[in-house]
C-alpha cells in the first residue's frame, strides 16, 4: 500500500515538473518578444531612468541595437525596465547622439574620456569618432600654448639661453628688490610690462623663447638674446630724487620693447649668424630712435659685437613741488 502511494506521488511530481518547465520558457520568450515587438523601451542605467524608442536605439550597429533585436541577453525587472549595469551619468548624451547624429561634448578632458569609455562600451562608432576628434583638437590646442619657464638659478638661466636655438626674450620682474618706495604710477607701469610680456608670448608663439625671471637683481628689465648671447637690454627702472626722499620709478617703454623683440627675430633659425644679420642689427634705422628720457649705452662684448643697453631716465632729479616749479633732470 505504501509502495503504491510512493509511486503515485513520484508520478505527480514528474507531471508538475513537466508543466512548470514550459511555463518558465514561455516567460523568457515573452520577455524577448515584448522587447522586439514594442515601440518604446524603458531603460534603467545605473539608477538613471530613460524612456526612448527602439528606432532610436537601432540607428547604429551597436550594443543597444543588439539588445533590441534579442541578440544580447538583458535583465528586465518586474515593471518592464531594461536594467543596464553602467553609470547613467553620460547615457543621456549617448541617446542624444543617436537621435540627432551629433552632440556637444564636454570641454573637460576627464569628462570627455568618460564619454568615450561609454561610447566604446555601447559600441556607438559615430560617437567614438566624435570623441576622438575632440580629444585631438584639445591636444593640438594644448601643444600650441607656449610654456614659459621660471628661472630658479643663474646657472639654469645661462644653460637654457646658451642651448636654445631660438631668439630669447627675458623679463626680470622682482618687485621686492627695492629699498625705496615706489612712485604713484610705478605699480601700474610694472603691471603693464607684465601684460606686454604675455601679449608678446601670444604674438610670437613658437618663434621666440620667453623667460620670466622673478629672482633677478632688477626690478623690471628686459633682455634680448640671439644665438646664446645678449643683444640688447631695456631697463625700465630709475631712481627719483625728491626733496625729502628717494623713490623708485618704473617706466613702460612699450614701443622700444616691441622694437627690440622684432630685432632679435633675425636670429631665428640661425639667420643672424652671418655678417648681414649683424649689420642689420647694429645699424639702427629711422624707426629705432630713442624716446624722450631714454639713453643708450653700448658695451663691447666678444670683439665687435656689442650689447645695446637702453635705460629710461636713469638717476632723475625731480622737484615734486607745486605746478609751475622748475624740473631738473640729471643724466
Structure, explained:
- The chain has 331 residues and is of the alpha/beta class.
- Helix content is 41%, strand content 21%.
- It has ten helices and 14 strands.
- It has helices at residues 2-37, 54-57, 63-68, 91-100, 109-122, 125-144, 154-163, 186-203, 254-263, 275-282; strands at residues 40-45, 48-53, 75-76, 82-84, 168-173, 181-182, 209-213, 220-226, 229-235, 237-241, 246-250, 294-300, 306-312, 316-317.
- The strands form three sheets. It has a six-stranded mixed β-sheet with strand order 7-5-8-9-13-12, covered by helices on one side. A four-stranded mixed β-sheet has the order 2-1-4-3.
- A hairpin with a 4-residue loop joins strand 10 (237-241) and strand 11.
- Helix 5 runs antiparallel to helix 6 (125-144).
- The longest helix is centred in the N-terminal third of the chain and has 36 residues, at 2-37.
- The protein is elongated, with a radius of gyration of 38 Å.
- The model is unreliable at 1-12, 14-34, 274-292, 300-304 and 313-331 (pLDDT under 50).
Order of helices and strands: HEEHHEEHHHHEEHEEEEEHHEEE
Low-confidence stretches: 1-12, 14-34, 274-292, 300-304, 313-331
Proportion of helical residues: 40-55%
Biggest sheet: strand arrangement = 7-5-8-9-13-12
What is the overall pLDDT average? 75
Amino acid at each position: 500500500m505504501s509502495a503504491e502511494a510512493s509511486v503515485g506521488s513520484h508520478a505527480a511530481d514528474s507531471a508538475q515538473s513537466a508543466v512548470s518547465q514550459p511555463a518558465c520558457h514561455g516567460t523568457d520568450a515573452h520577455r524577448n518578444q515584448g522587447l522586439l515587438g514594442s515601440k518604446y523601451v524603458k531603460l534603467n542605467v545605473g539608477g538613471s531612468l530613460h524612456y526612448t524608442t527602439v528606432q532610436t536605439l537601432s540607428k547604429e550597429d551597436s550594443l543597444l541595437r543588439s539588445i533590441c533585436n534579442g541578440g544580447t541577453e538583458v535583465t528586465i525587472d518586474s515593471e518592464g525596465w531594461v536594467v543596464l549595469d553602467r553609470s547613467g551619468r553620460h547615457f543621456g548624451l549617448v541617446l542624444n547622439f543617436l537621435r540627432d547624429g551629433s552632440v556637444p561634448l564636454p570641454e573637460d578632458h576627464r569628462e570627455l574620456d568618460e564619454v568615450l569609455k561609454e561610447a566604446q562600451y555601447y559600441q556607438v562608432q559615430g560617437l567614438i569618432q566624435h570623441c576622438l576628434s575632440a580629444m585631438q583638437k584639445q591636444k593640438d590646442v594644448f601643444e600650441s600654448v607656449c610654456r614659459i619657464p621660471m628661472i630658479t638659478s643663474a646657472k639654469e638661466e645661462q644653460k637654457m639661453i646658451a642651448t636654445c636655438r631660438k631668439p630669447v626674450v627675458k623679463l626680470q620682474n622682482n618687485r621686492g628688490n627695492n629699498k625705496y618706495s615706489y612712485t604713484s604710477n610705478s605699480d601700474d607701469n610694472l603691471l603693464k610690462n607684465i601684460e606686454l610680456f604675455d601679449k608678446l608670448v601670444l604674438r610670437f608663439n613658437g618663434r621666440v623663447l620667453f623667460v620670466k625671471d622673478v629672482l633677478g637683481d632688477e626690478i623690471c628689465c628686459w633682455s634680448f638674446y640671439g644665438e646664446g648671447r645678449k643683444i640688447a637690454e631695456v631697463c625700465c627702472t630709475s631712481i627719483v630724487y625728491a626733496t625729502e626722499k628717494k623713490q623708485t620709478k618704473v617706466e613702460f617703454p612699450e614701443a622700444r620693447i616691441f622694437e627690440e623683440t622684432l630685432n632679435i627675430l633675425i636670429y631665428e633659425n640661425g639667420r643672424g649668424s652671418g655678417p648681414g644679420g649683424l649689420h642689420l642689427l647694429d645699424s639702427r634705422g629711422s624707426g629705432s630712435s630713442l624716446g624722450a628720457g631714454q639713453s643708450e649705452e653700448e658695451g663691447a662684448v666678444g670683439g665687435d659685437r656689442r650689447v645695446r643697453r637702453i635705460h629710461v631716465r636713469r638717476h632723475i632729479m625731480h622737484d615734486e613741488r607745486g605746478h609751475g616749479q622748475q624740473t631738473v633732470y640729471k643724466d
